Amino acid sequence: MTDAAVSAASTRRALSVYVHFPWCLAKCPYCDFFSLAAQRDAIPHGAYADAMLRELERRAADVGPHELASVFFGGGTPSLWEPKELGRVLAAISGAFGGKDVEVTAECNPSSFDERRAEELLRVGVNRVSLGVQGLERERLAFLGRLHDADGALGALRTALGAGFRRVSADLIFGVAGESPDVARREALTIAELGPTHVSAYALTIEPGTRFGALAKANKLPLLEEDLVARSFEAVATALEGAGFEHYEISNFARGGHYAEHNLAIWRGGTYLGLGTGAWGTVRRAGGLLRYRNAPAPERYLSATATAPLWEISELVSDAEHVDAATALSERLMLGLRLAEGVDLARAAAETGAPGWTRERERAAERLVRSGRLVRDGARLRIPESAWLFADAVVRELM
Ligand code: SF4
Description:
The chain is α/β, with parallel strands linked by helices. It folds into two domains: about 5-265, Aldolase class I (TIM Barrel, Alpha-Beta Barrel); about 325-399, Arc Repressor Mutant, subunit A (Orthogonal Bundle), CATH 1.10.10. Helix content is about 40%, strand content about 20%. It is built from 15 helices and 17 strands. The strands form four sheets. Strands 9-10-8-7-6-5-4-1-11 form a nine-stranded mixed β-sheet, sandwiched between helices. Strand 7, helix 7 (about 180-195) and strand 8 form a beta-alpha-beta unit. Helix 2 packs parallel to helix 3 (about 85-95), helix 4 packs parallel to helix 6 (about 150-165) and helix 12 packs antiparallel against helix 13 (about 345-350). The longest helix has 19 residues, at about 45-65.
């Protein structure tokens, strides 16, 4: 990424907006996002949008004027939401904050995405679709609890590409029991050949509190050996890079400079307003950073958005904390070092108010540079791609 691209995306008063839509047709056994299984006609489409408009009006007045940098409808499965309701929320967000040519992403699942849905989403202003392909083998998709098969996934990807979205991203999960690195490579290539502008490829992780987490704890979940997961990561990366994608973040690949602008802003330390039940937000307030989470409880959300305190624990908010300077700097390192461009430590220190080059960090950086796991270029630190598999350990050492 060029320096111009780096500075263009880091305007001070920019604000991203994340909208959480919590419902899915079924709960996937590996998923630890806040999501609830529901049939489409049981979802309170209009009431949820109404509640969100109430929340938005109050939060926008509170944070004051900002330039809208990006909007991301995540979940859950936002493609289940009636597009006209999603559109009402999007129009209100655009009206509350100025912003030109803003990236607007909607996460979509193949089981709730077709030509009609694509047209409706385009019409209300969505210009980027992130499609949960996840895999291209029937048994593995079934193991992951996905409701679509390979044809459904590829068909949805073709539909998104043909519909006229400016950007189309596909999500892929690798490292699943029984999947060889070569299968992971071939799946990545099949997806790449269809022509998406972006691919997110994640190793399957087993999270506590999920069905897979419980099965793993009871030793009842088949898992792929760690070295095969690592080889799959390398195989997927090599395949996508060979197909013209830039590996710009550990799990993310873009073609033609079509980075995920919303995520990129957050990896670079940008602030974002979170709207909806279960949504997290981080905003600048009273000279510092404030992080909050809306209660992951739709019923409470529907009734509390008009009156409950916005930034304190309340019927609406289940978590709220000031992010101190040291934590803010640690987070900048943790997120920034996932990027190929790395992180400008001097700048991150100045923006967070925490000391950048402590004696311990100097020593840790020297050790890491000597071992080839870190590159130091002036104030900028980055992990070379050859060491991305060890990124967590590198970050821990620098903390
Ligand atoms: S569709 Fe996505 S958000 Fe919904 S349960 Fe599955 S992984 Fe989680």
